[in-house]
Design brief:
- It is a single chain.
- This protein has one domain: Dihydrofolate Reductase, subunit A.
- The chain is built from 5 helices and 10 strands, in the order E-E-H-H-E-H-E-E-H-E-H-E-E-E-E.
- The strands form 2 sheets. Strands 5-4-3-6-1-7-10-9 form an 8-stranded mixed beta sheet. Strands 2-8 form a two-stranded antiparallel sheet.
- It is globular, with a radius of gyration of 16 Å.
- The two termini are 15 Å apart.
- The model has no long low-confidence stretch (mean pLDDT 93).
- This is Dihydrofolate reductase family protein.
- It comes from Rhodococcus sacchari.
Length: 192
Amino acid sequence: MRTLTYYVAVTMDGFIAGPNGEYDFFPIPDELTAALVQEYPETVPTHVRDHLGIDSPNKKFDSVVMGRRTWEPSLDAGVTSAYKHLDQYVFSTTMTETPDDTVTLVDSDPLAYVRDLKKQDGAGIWLCGGGSLAGTLLPEIDELVLKISPVVIGDGIPLFRSGFDPIRFDLTESRVFGGVTVNRLVPRGAAA
């Protein structure tokens, strides 16, 4: 069965973006970029991969899922398909069509949809953002890869937006790159 990995930058106070979706405050040290491009080249947007000359094959993921608000900043910048090298799924109940046929717009139950995706053949699935979507998909998350930045913003989009229901994770790896801590965690009781 395929795995779902929530791979995302997060502040020390638990936000993945500012109140209006801002994310430009996250530091991106060169050593972090080098390590993550080596390990997760598929998480670099297609247009940036081309610009940087990254031609590495996908190592971990062949699909990406995200909420509409995570997708919108690329649309606002004129990039309708940020991850052409992956199967892209955008969850939205308000959009009726996608401006790019390489993006699948999904208006059905995200949990059921991702459970079905996980049963299909393929590599891992990357959950790249959306605190509400992450909260909905929490029961299906097999791994967290959190890039914890030494920043406090006070308000914004939380890592998870869901009701109170504690779920424990075990830390399986922790590394520091230029002040950013990258933690890998799995649900308690899952194989690392």
